[in-house]
Amino acid sequence: MAGGKENARQKMINLMYLVFIAMLALNMSKEVLMTFGEIDREVVKSTKSLKESNKAAIQVIKNSAKNDSLQWYIAYQPISKIAEAANELTEFINKNDNELIIPYEVNDVTYQSFKRPILEKDNSFGRTIDGSIPEMVGDYEVMDNSAAYDEMLFTGDYVNEDNTGYTAAAQEFVRLVNNFRDTAIEEITKSDISRDTTKNKIWNDSKSGLIRIIEQSFNTDVVKVGKAEDKIKSWLHFNFEGFPEIASITKLTLMEEDVENVIQTMISSINEVILGENLTALRAIPLNVNVFYENSKLEGSIALGKYDETFVASTVMIKNGNGPMKEYRASDVMENGEVVLEKLKLNVGSAGAKKLTGKIVFIRTENGEDVRKEIPIDHEYFVNPPLAIVSNKDMNIVYESIENTLSISMPGVSNENIEILSPPSIRKGKNTGEYIMVGEKGKNGKVRIKIKDKLSGIVSPDVVFDVVRLPKPLAIFSGTSSRLSAQQIASGRLTGSFNNERLDNGLKLNVAEFKVRVGLRNLGVVRNTGGSFNDRIKQQILRARRGETVTVYDIKLNSAKIDNGTRFLNPQNDLVLTVR
Fold first, then answer.
1. What is the spatial distance between Cα 380 and Cα 164, in angstroms, rounded to a whole number?
2. Cα-Cα-Cα-Cα dihedral of 549, 550, 553, 558, to 10°?
3. Per-residue pLDDT tens for 373-386?
4. Would the pTM count as exceeding 0.90?
5. Residue 409 needs a FRET pair 20 to 30 A away by CA distance; which of 83, 162, 329, 507 works?
6. Please, which residues have CB within 8 angstroms of residue 291's CB and are 6 or more apart in sequence?
7. CA–CA separation, 484 and 477 (whole Å)
8. CA-to-CA distance for 95 and 114, rounded, in angstroms?
9. What digits encode the pLDDT tens for the residues 386-410?
10. Torsion angle of alpha carbons 86, 87, 88, 91, nearest 10°?
């Protein structure tokens, strides 16, 4: 999950976040929703198997601690505490009597679980799953709404640690994630797993790798979402707010898999230190190999549960998608017991679900003969199509016939290779990724922005903005009331506002001119004072009697972003001030 410091996993989830926001604006592809549902189904199945395996292995260590306490008692202590924290987290996610969750119905069954069940439908098309044709299948295509998890988790925006915007359920979830991470790190850091000093040294050398994986996978730091220091989101808001329901469910499933991977790696490491190297007990664990963009490079790593510089296989064989099986010298692609996928220099290719298969081969000498040991690799990841990310940094919508500043990018595509196909009213701005849309009126109240990657020729789906007319601004006078002293009126200042903070910040209205009347005396036009009265008018206002009115009318406002300041806007109101 994403945190404050961008590691490879966070980069992928950041990109996932951007893609989902864009997809929501375009009505997310049903194929994409279905693919994520299928990934969730597969991960649920593998995680269940891994959990059962871990449970059995922990029981073996527990029994060994009773029967051979000198050898195993110390080793059992950290793994038992970490497994207990893991169970608290996964049980909270899955239990159906969670008192912090408001009951809800799915497929006419009432649930009260943090992780919502998958919607189902009749298998009318006869889909085959795991070699059989079930009566019901996942109805992932309709799980594109974010309301269920938004309501379950959030009461508002994140402000700070004292004002998180979390519901009680969200607070408990984050507490349990933090508790698992902190417990695991603390237990590993302080642990000795043997009375044998040599074994303890081997164990201590492996701790940093274990801790690194835990810190990366369960980092819940706030996430910066802008250049300013206060532009942040909580980890929970960043990863769950506004996401389709199936995406949030899949993220929880992946978290459960990460939890079991930590337990499995811990068990493998303890067994290896106490019993010696046992390659057959190792398992290939892909880390941060979940979501990519079309034609980007394969990133992440494949861990084996050993974390020292000397642990290197003989050969690594990888088949990516429909590509050929490639063979690499392990010393060229492994670091600290992990296969670093960036070193393979493989392209993930086109959009869709992809298989990463192969094996890590070790040659070990046993009884004077070379013996070949193979650890299989079998993992599925997903490739998203490149979608244009278009935002209007000044406003949420596009306003007709004025200058709109847009930020435009495509994940995996450099700024130099972005080409705007339509509309022709868009030109490049001063900053990287900045574009200016000028004088756009749209068609039928909408403008469709089409983006192309000049390098690959890929054209993104249209990004659609509503085009609305600029509202009439309001004229505002400094002061807390319409009844002011003559001195307060004379020293006051007139401003213009759309009563919309983003619109005001984007256009920065200026008072170009206005007329003034004191009582029945018209005092003429005031120009280029930025909304203040000139000295001549001030003198007349100071002579006004109590109860007399000062009227400011025929007000004209302008903005440098509206026809270079040449076009006047008239506010919807005059100002009538009474001398008290």
1. 35
2. -150
3. 888 998 888 887 76
4. no
5. 507
6. 12, 13, 15, 16, 381, 382, 383, 384
7. 11
8. 7
9. 666 666 655 557 888 788 888 887 7
10. 130
